[in-house]
Structures are given as structure tokens and as C-alpha cells.
Recover the amino acids of this structure.
């Protein structure tokens, strides 16, 4: 039985093909390895490299403010600016956002820190990591001089069929109004502070609810002297905010907290906060754990 001896050429060709195939696989793996994303840099590392970190603010002085020249300031961003500088990130870049869009925007990566006076509430603490407290404030109503509807609490508003309340979208005041039982048709979402004052002056709303310092700033800036501010709103607590971070950015939050504690200790925190009308002591006397109702 003759065995066809394989011509040396075809055997060589077969060997060459096998070697080429092997090499091809090696090259393919090599290429993938070369282009495989480097281990993702942490948010803090990325911020250090780019020299800035994006923050969400509401533009509600004195908590947060974008000045006419575009500069961002306000108690919360100034604290964040000081902390991030010490962490090697010289700039903060603001995105003006409604309160109700801040946590979704943070989670979607539109910005990396909410530095807006976003009050710590248990439901929010489930969605984000907070720094220790930075700005604290009491609740207030802006109403017509003399408070003709006699509203002193959210329950008073809910119980008065003639009372229409203006609140910011997704903010604490909206939550209070709805929790007190105010029907939807008597809760009006106000786009910004000046609009809220105008809506009160024109009778579109009877009550404009915001933290006391925010309403005092608005009354001064708009010169609205036919309105008054009632504060503290009965039955509401002093609320404190903190900087808010994604759950995946615990490293950044913990580093932020360490520097924040140093600023509180050194007195720099008070120097930043108090010119805006906030009490540094109020933020020192309460903890994130108390405000979140548990560890965060
Ligand atoms: O966290 C909030 O919902 C709130 N924070 C501020 C500074 N103003 C509106 C709202 O009360």
C-alpha cells in the first residue's frame, strides 16, 4: 500500500499556516491588551489630573451663587473649593441644577459632587454618600405683609383651601408641603428665587417656602417690601446639608471628610461660612449619622 509521502512543500506550508495562525492569535491578544482601558482612574485621581472637579449647585444665595461674571460662590461651594484645593484639585466647575435633578445627575456622572446645601434626609442618604455637615438652616415662609392667611406651619397651608404654596422642584419644601397633605393643585413648582417672589407679589402663590437665609437674601435683593418672612416654620427642624457623592466614590468622600474636619478644627471652616450668615457651630454640633438616621 503506497503511502503518499507528503511533498515536503505542502508539509512546510501546513506548518507555516499553523505558525501564522498561532502568531495571529498572539498578535490579537497583544493588541487587545495594548488598547484595554487602563485601570479606571478614581474620581479624585481624574480630578487631580484635569485640575478641576464638576459640582452641582442650585444658584440659591447664600447657599450657592453664580455671580454675573460666571464665578461660582456661596457657602457650600466655598467650603468645597477649600477642601478640594487641599486635595490637589484647584478648580470647581459648576452646573446649575434643580434640587430634584441633583442626585440623578450625580449618579449619571453629569457632575462629581453636589455642593448645593442639599439637606441630609434619610431618603437621600440611601442614594448618595454625604460628607459631614457643612451648612445648616431653618425653614421659612415668605408671605404678604401681615400674613393674612395666618400660615405658620405646613399643616396650616394644607388645611387652608385658599393657600397656594410655591416650592422648588424636588426640594425639602416640596416634600414638606406634600407630606402635610397639600393637594397637587395647591403646590406650585417655582423655577428660581426671583420668580418665586414675583409669583407671590402677583398673587399666583400665597406662600413661598425656602430656608430662611435664602428668603432673606431674596427680599433684600428684590427690594420686595410688601412681603414678610415668617421663620422658623412651626414643626420643621433645623436642616443641615453636606457635600454629596456617588456611592462608588467612598474614597473621595472619606478624603473630603478628613480635610473638612481639619478646616473645622483650624477655624478656617468658620471663616468661610460665617460671612454668608451661617453658623459653623451648628454644623459642628450635629453628625451625618444623626441626620441620615444611621451610618452613611
Ligand atoms: O436640600 C434641599 O432640598 C434644600 N436646600 C436648600 C439650600 N434650599 C432648598 C431646599 O430647602
Amino acid at each position: 500500500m503506497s503511502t503518499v509521502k507528503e511533498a515536503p512543500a505542502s508539509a512546510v506550508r501546513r506548518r507555516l499556516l499553523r505558525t501564522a495562525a498561532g502568531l495571529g492569535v498572539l498578535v490579537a491578544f497583544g493588541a487587545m491588551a495594548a488598547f484595554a482601558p487602563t485601570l479606571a482612574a478614581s474620581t479624585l485621581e481624574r480630578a487631580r489630573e484635569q485640575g478641576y472637579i464638576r459640582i452641582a449647585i442650585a444658584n440659591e444665595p447664600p447657599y450657592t451663587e453664580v455671580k454675573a461674571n460666571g464665578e461660582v460662590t456661596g457657602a457650600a461651594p466655598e467650603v468645597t473649593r477649600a477642601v478640594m484645593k487641599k486635595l490637589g484639585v484647584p478648580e470647581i466647575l459648576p452646573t446649575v441644577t434643580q434640587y430634584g435633578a441633583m442626585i440623578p445627575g450625580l449618579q449619571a456622572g453629569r457632575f462629581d459632587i453636589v455642593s448645593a446645601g442639599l439637606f441630609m434626609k434619610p431618603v437621600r442618604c440611601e442614594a448618595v454618600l454625604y460628607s459631614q455637615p457643612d451648612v445648616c438652616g431653618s425653614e421659612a415662609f415668605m408671605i404678604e405683609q401681615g400674613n393674612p392667611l395666618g400660615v405658620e406651619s405646613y399643616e396650616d397651608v394644607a388645611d387652608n383651601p385658599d393657600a397656594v404654596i410655591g416650592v422648588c422642584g424636588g426640594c425639602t419644601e416640596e416634600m414638606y408641603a406634600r407630606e402635610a397633605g397639600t393637594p397637587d393643585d395647591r403646590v406650585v413648582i417655582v423655577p428660581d428665587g426671583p420668580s418665586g417672589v414675583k409669583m407671590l407679589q402677583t398673587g399666583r402663590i400665597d406662600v413661598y417656602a425656602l430656608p430662611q437665609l435664602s428668603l432673606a437674601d431674596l427680599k433684600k435683593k428684590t427690594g420686595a417690601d410688601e412681603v414678610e418672612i415668617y421663620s422658623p416654620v412651626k414643626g420643621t427642624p433645623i436642616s443641615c446639608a453636606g457635600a454629596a457623592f456617588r456611592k462608588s466614590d467612598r474614597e473621595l468622600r472619606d478624603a473630603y471628610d478628613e480635610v473638612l474636619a481639619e478646616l473645622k478644627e483650624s477655624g478656617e471652616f468658620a471663616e468661610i461660612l460665617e460671612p454668608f450668615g451661617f453658623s459653623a457651630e451648628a454644623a459642628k454640633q450635629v453628625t451625618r449619622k444623626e441626620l441620615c438616621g444611621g451610618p452613611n
Q: What stands out?
A: The longest strand covers residues 52-57.
